[in-house]
Structure formats: structure tokens, C-alpha cells
Amino acid sequence: MNLETLTRDLTPIQLVGELDKTVTQLTFDSRLAGPGTLFVAQKGTKSDGHAYLEDVASKGAVAVVCEQLPATLHPEVTYLQVTNSNRALGLLACAWYGHPSSKMTLVGVTGTNGKTTIATLLYELYRKLGYKAGLLSTVCNYIDATQIKATHTTPDALAINELLAAMVDAGCTHAFMEVSSHAIDQQRIAGLHFAGGIFTNITRDHLDYHLTFDNYLKAKKAFFDTLPSTAFALINADDKNGRIMVQNCKATIKDYSTQRMADFKAKVLENHFEGMQLSINQREVAVQFIGRFNVSNLLAIYGAACMLGEDPETILLVLSTLKPVSGRLEFMRSPTGFLAIVDYAHTPDALKNVLVTLNELVEGQGRIITVVGAGGNRDKGKRPLMAKEALAGSQLVILTSDNPRFEDPLTILADMQEGVSVVDRKRVLSQVDRKEAIRTACLMATPGDVILVAGKGHEDYQEIQGVKHPFDDKQVIADVYATL
What DSSP string runs through 119-140? Predict the structure, then answer.
């Protein structure tokens, strides 16, 4: 691609060199640089691409985008100095892949909880409506029916646009995407054309990265600040921060609620372990989901599809056929009469929502036993809060490992124990081995009890000291069941 064409959307502070060059590769990884490369120097959390400018020049790079010009300028290299390399990479990635997001209907979903469920079910809804659709999510990416394993909640800008371009090539007309706060803050979605954005809720999360809740909130809000006037913004009116999200939003704003008047309103008519009977905008529908938080998720899906012009009755018909996403309130009945549930809840609010749901269904007819941990090298402040929420909604809690990463799992457990009062200590066990913790819960359960195994959900690994070991909560439960 011609360098001048490729960089047309950039507004460089300074340009050194010629733009009439051919670029054969775009990268932010200096190890991949070679002849014909346009290299974007990013300041990352672990390394700074500016340290490799001399290296990429020696490998034959024809151009460099950077925030600071190097001391030595090579005459054969064109330098474009910009204020934000992350944003520049996003814009360049869009141009490199031919602006694929403008060739389909792209909807972004952001918030603390519910992103995966909403994005995945919108993808499934639209495929059942007869469209070719794509999905970018925590659990998996899809190009219509083709599955591509996900490695991050939101990939880097090049990977995003490569996936979107593949969706366009496959004939996809719609794409649904989880948009994380990291991706927004790091400008990985810069240049993407969104037809709509959905806000689920916001509670404490990722403070290891954002440092303060206010920073976290502002990152989420920035997504809605950039939506065009042609797009829609659908917000959860039951979250007090919903209105803050759209204070500076140019898009058409609609809201959804289970508690107050809204554009899209729902109430629960019947609630049991097999599903719920709902009223959505005065229309009744039976769904295969449980929990009030899932009512909100289904409302967001319904509202978004309505905003995209689908027939409300047809939407409800398809909603009734959809099933929960992998690792989200997945039920496994034991041969001895208790129930184990695997859920991804890894924030205090998500854990609370799941336990409120389970208590409503159990109605005191059995105990709730919660197995829960907390991730290493992440926000330490939520660890005692996780223990508190587990105790508030359970009769017995087993604290265990999640993904300890590079931390000592015993230290993580000690942090969680800070949320356990003296009175509650008799209801808490600590078992650092997650497999043994799940096995213990199953052996303690009696008919009518419900075991919640929280925190990892769909994950099929446990990360310890930088190594991902095979580990699947559902498989562990199945193995225990086989011995009962």
C-alpha cells in the first residue's frame, strides 16, 4: 500500500522524509520488521517500542510512526511523529485492512459484567435470523460459523481489523464485539465504525490497571463519546452511571430497565431453575435463562436488535430458543441429588448477582456452598470483598485458588480472609488446591444443596508462574460425580 494513502487519517506533529513509498507490512512488533515495513512505536506496560527504532531501520523499515523522534534519523526512513501511537496504530490498522467495520453493522458491548453474554447471544440471534455474523469475545471469536480461539477480551488493533476483514470476506453483514476498558484506554478500537454501543453496568474491576474507579468509568465513557450521530447508544437505566456514559454522546440514546420506566422494560412473571417467563414491553416470552441480571442482558439484546430494525415479535421468538453462554450459570446435576453450577463471576458484584439468583431459586430448601478464589497480579482490593459477598449469599464458603499467576496463592487466600469476620470463620474453609476444593464441596453436599464454583467459568486452564496448566471446573466436577 502507498504510504501516503495508508497515513491519510493521521495528523502528524512532524513529518521527516517522503510519503511516496510502498509499504508491504504494518507492525508494532520490532521482531517482525523487515524490508518495506511501517513500524509503529508504542509505549507498552512492559516495553517501549521507541527503544527499537534503530533496530527496525537496520532491518529495512521504510517508515516509522512514533511519539518521539530518535536522535539519529536515517535518510531512507520516513518518520511520522504523532501525539498518540496507540491511536495511530488503530487508524492505520483500519486503513491497512480497507476499513472493514464500515462495510458491516458493528455493535460494541462494554461494561463490567454481561459483555460476553450479550455479544455472544446477539451473534447467535442474528445467525438464527438468517444473517451471516461475526463475534469478537472473551470466550471465542467467530467468522460466521468458523471458530477462532480468543486470547484477549479485545485483541490488538491489527488483530481486530484482520478479523473484521475476514468477516467481510466471508459475507458477514453484522459483527458483535466485547469492548474492554483496556481496549478503549489503549485506543485499540480507534478508527472503527460502530453502528451501536451497549452499556451493561459498571462496578469495581481492573483497578490494578486503571488505579481508580473514576479512571475506569472514564475509560468506559470514552467509547460512547466517540459514537457517531448515525449510531445508537443503549444503556442500562438500572445502573446509576448509565446516564454518565452518554453525557457527551452524539448517538441516538435509548435505555432498558427491569425496575423503572424505560424504552425497553421487562419483569419476571415466573422464575425456576429451568428458566423464566418474562414480560418484555408487554409481550410474554419464556427463556432458558435464570437470574435478574440475565433479564437485563436479554433486554439489552432485545433493545439492540430493535434499534437495528428487526421485528420485535421475531426477536422474542428467537430469544426463547437461545441458551446460556459457556461458563455462565452452567448446571451439572449430581447422581446423588445436589446441583453444581459453574459461573465466571470474578467480581464482587457478579458474585453477589449470581448468589442472589440462587437464593431466590433454592428458597431455603437446601444449602448454598460457594467455591471461590481471586486472580493473582490483579486488583488486591476486591479480594476481601469477594469473600464477603460469598459469605453473604452462602451457608458455606471454600476459599481456593483462581489463576494465581506470579503470586503465592497462599498470599491471595490471606487477602481474601481479611473479608471474613470472626463470627463467620466457622463457615469458611481454605483449600489452596482448586481441584481438591471442588471435590470437598461435592463430598459435603447433600440432596437439595447447590454448589457454586465461581471465578473461572469457560476457562480451560489455570495460570501458575506464567504457565497455563489444563484445568476445567466442569471436568473436575464431572470426574467427582463419576466417583459418587
Answer: HHHHHHHHHHTT--EEEE-SSE
DSSP H/E element including 54: helix 53-58
Instruction: Name the pLDDT band for 206 (thresholds 50, 70, 90).
Output: low
Give the sign of the dihedral formed by CA 70, CA 74, CA 75, CA 81. negative
| 135, 106 contact by CB (below 8 A) | no
Which residues have a Cβ under 8 Å from the Cβ of 84 and sit 6 or more positions away?
67, 187
Alpha-carbon distance values, 407 to 47, 412, 413 (Å): 21, 7, 11
Strands (E) in 334-432, as ranges, are: 339-343, 368-372, 396-399, 428-430
Tell me the C-alpha to C-alpha distance, in Å, between residue 60 and each of 56, 74, 127, 147, 383.
7, 11, 45, 36, 49
Could you please report the per-residue DSSP string of 90-111?
A: HHHHHHHTT-GGGGSEEEEEES
Taking a C-beta distance cutoff of 8 angstroms, is the pair 289, 267 a contact?
no
Give the per-residue pLDDT at 129: 98
Residue 394 CB coordination number (10 Å): 24
Mind listing the pLDDT tens digit for each residue in 162-187?
A: 999 999 999 999 999 999 888 898 99
Residues 409, 376 contacting (CB under 8 angstroms): yes
Residue 363: helix, strand or coil by DSSP?
A: coil
Q: Find the mean pLDDT for residues 196-219.
A: 76
Looking at residue 154, the DSSP 8-state letter turns out to be S
pTM of the model: 0.86
Q: Tally the C-alpha atoms within 13 A of residue 349's C-alpha that lie toward its C-beta.
A: 13
CB neighbourhood size of 58 (10 A): 10
Contacts of 465 (CB under 8 A, 6+ apart): 405, 406
pLDDT tens string 65-78: 999 999 999 999 99
Distance CA 50, CA 82 (A): 13
- 3-class DSSP state for residue 390? helix
* C-alpha cell, 437: 476444593
What are the cell numbers at 257? 430497565
The position carrying cell 465504525 is 193
The Cα–Cα gap between 78 and 67 comes to 14
Q: How many CB atoms lie within 10 A of CB 467?
A: 9
Which run of H or E residues covers position 270?
strand 264-272
Whole-number Å distance between alpha carbons of 161 and 430? 45
- Compute and round to an integer the Cα radius of gyration of the chain: 24
